[in-house]
Amino acid sequence: MRLANRVAIITGGASGMGLASVFRYLDEGACVVVADFNETTGAAAIAAATAKGYADQVSFFRTDVASEDDIANLVDHTLSRFGQLDIMFNNAGVGGAIGPLTETTVASWDYTFDVLAKGVFLGIKHAAIAMRAAGKGGSIINTASIAGLSGDAGPLVYSAAKAAVISLTRSSAVELAPDKIKVNAICPGFIATPLADGGNPEATQAKFATSQPWPDYGRGEHIAGAALFLASDDSEFVTGEEIVVDGGLTAAGPELSRKMPKTSGRNARVSGITKGSTGEPPEVKRL
Hints:
- By secondary structure, the protein is of the alpha/beta class.
- The chain has ten helices and nine strands.
- Helix 1 (16-27) crosses helix 8 (220-231), helix 3 packs parallel to helix 4 (106-134) and helix 4 packs parallel to helix 5 (156-176).
């Protein structure tokens, strides 16, 4: 098992991508502390893990990731319960502020950044303290987003916060590399989770299945697979990176093939070459 004798914290671990990662880590032999603000879903997660025979490997700790006291206490709980901390997956998130820039309040900006950016900073900080003290290295994984990679892939404040996570990941990776603490980010695309589906999972899955080149919707298990790679020794020499898990969405860029006349790709209706303003005629044939 790839995570045998490892201990992990997963924030936002009671649902969606976090919960999928909890079970993937447990399956691979890790002990896992499920950190979440929602005690109801947290209890359900522990019950599900217990039903699968993982009672001795899992624990729940209610956590507000924007509170430094909560994060410090979370790490202390982990060390007390399992004796070590090897993997910190800063995954907790919210949709946060939406709407036009001119209508966005400071309060909604602050709330979004508190959870999405400050929460990651605090997770990195306190995990690094524990990992440095142990002297065995470790892996810190942060959930960013494709929204942090461009200017029109998500709500403005959310996108800015996720861009901050990407930058913080790179800087932290440099600072913690001498301690053999890896710091990486995962940038999910459209993943059908309770956070995204608004109570209508079937409609969300159908919509997301046609939102990128890959002909299926993103699932929490897809993120869990990337999180397993980054937590394991397979990624020993990988740090300061953001791994995009989006079914080819960012690779497609503006997706002009969907919006413009069919001139490229497998559905193209013509073939040949155009020569712009060179004065030479195009060499194009219809298919």
